[in-house]
Amino acid sequence: xxxxxxxxxxxxxxxxxxxxxxxxxxxxxxxxxxxxxxxxxxxxxxxxxxxxxxxxxxxxxxxxxxxxxxxxxxxxxxxxxxxxxxxxxxxxxxxxxxxxxxxxxxxxxxxxxxxxxxxxxxxxxxxxxxxxxxxxxxxxxxxxxxxxxxxxxxxxxxxxxxxxxxxxxxxxxxxxxxxxxxxxx
Amino acid sequence: xxxxxxxxxxxxxxxxxxxxxxxxxxxxxxxxxxxxxxxxxxxxxxxxxxxxxxxxxxxxxxxxxxxxxxxxxxxxxxxxxxxxxxxxxxxxxxxxxxxxxxxxxxxxxxxxxxxxxxxxxxxxxxxxxxxxxxxxxxxxxxxxxxxxxxxxxxxxxxxxxxxxxxxxxxxxxxxxxxxxxxxxxxxxxxxxxxxxxxxxxxxxxxxxxxxxxxxxxxxxxxxxxxxxxxxxxxxxxxxxxxxxxxxxxxxxxxxxxxxxxxxxxxxxxxxxxxxxxxxxxxxxxxxxxxxxxxxxxxxxxxxxxxxxxxxxxxxxxxxxxxxxxxxxx
Lengths: 185, 329
Prior knowledge:
The complex is a heterodimer.
Chain A (H helix, E strand, L loop, with lengths): L1 H30 L3 H21 L3 H26 L12 H26 L16 H8 L4 H30 L5
Helix pairs in contact in A: 1-2, 2-3
Chain B lengths: L4 H33 L15 H11 L10 H18 L9 E3 L2 E3 L9 H22 L3 H24 L1 H7 L4 H10 L8 H14 L11 H4 L9 H26 L12 H21 L5 H30 L1
Antiparallel strand pairs in B: 1-2
Helix pairs in contact in B: 1-10, 1-11, 3-4, 3-10, 4-5, 5-8, 5-12, 6-7, 6-12, 8-10, 8-12, 10-11
């Protein structure tokens, strides 16, 4: 009994820390003037999202999130930013007006969503589901879903990735040919 | 039967310290072996056979002035070696070194944490560890350090792909990402280095590149880059980077033993951790031997080898293994 209570308190503490780290790092991404720091904050954001996944007992998704997004993808971001060098600009200074409109629209959509969820929860319509089995979130469970219920989305994603990879190869080959044509000095 | 939480804590503390000792004596072993292979003695002044040399080095590093470049980004400069060290130490938590024991009336597992995604966890921690190098190099605000960190980043990202693909065959045969399951499967059937020999070769090459050891030590090629991403580091901060590198070597050796050589299983006596340690020792010594024997590759050779040789071999190996596993079952 005491162990269960301590466990619950621990889950709450971790949730609070991860949720606020998520929000804080999200704000930090858009408010740093140095893009390198912004990218690091984004890594923090992805990492704290992974912790939230862990609390939802989806350990496979959490690890994949860290491996793919916080690991591989963000390394590329940092790589490019470090190469291009420090080009700082004030994050709150203007920008095109459609960006501001888009941001306001996205934020209000999120706000509506949050209000709806809170309303559902208050109305007791968001009841706990007890159908989650012990294997939920395990690699085999996720894999089975990929190859049964979500096969179409899975295959379409793989085709999109393949197209992107081929595009990258063609772009790279093109630029190499362009540099080859420069006569030797 | 589940382990009591305080046993896990004690075990974690013991293992962390054991790894630090293992690291210290890996440096000693490396210097001794390299010395003998180059017709010299290696460290032989501090203690018998130079056995106290690691501690002398530690005291020297700790007492050095902890400077940093005036242009450096202070907080990142300090955080980078800590991040490297943390990910290196954390990865060992999921590696099993024994079958588990019953001590008095408590159950003690043969690993710190038995998680279902152990293998992915190790790779995830490794991919976070790359940030130590890239952030450290960038935060130093020095050209050599930045170039070194770019190289490190490109090399580690390239070889991470091959490393992950090379173990796919083992995962398919063991039908689990849990390292304990994989070792048990090997104990029940056959050690996976026989059916997965191609995977093992790719794993070993990719592993040397991941730990930036010679002949793949381009991130730190002294003749080209001074010292790579840790050019501007000194004292124990540099020491942390170095420690992380050696611990990664030990962890990946232990992972190779776990995935391909039956983990804690041995031919005669059920000695568990002793067999495990012995196999890891053989691996680490072999990597030191390779360092003494093979000259450094050129950068384009390294990249071509990674993408055009290792990656296709690893992919074909994974596909064939998948077909065979489906066909047999």
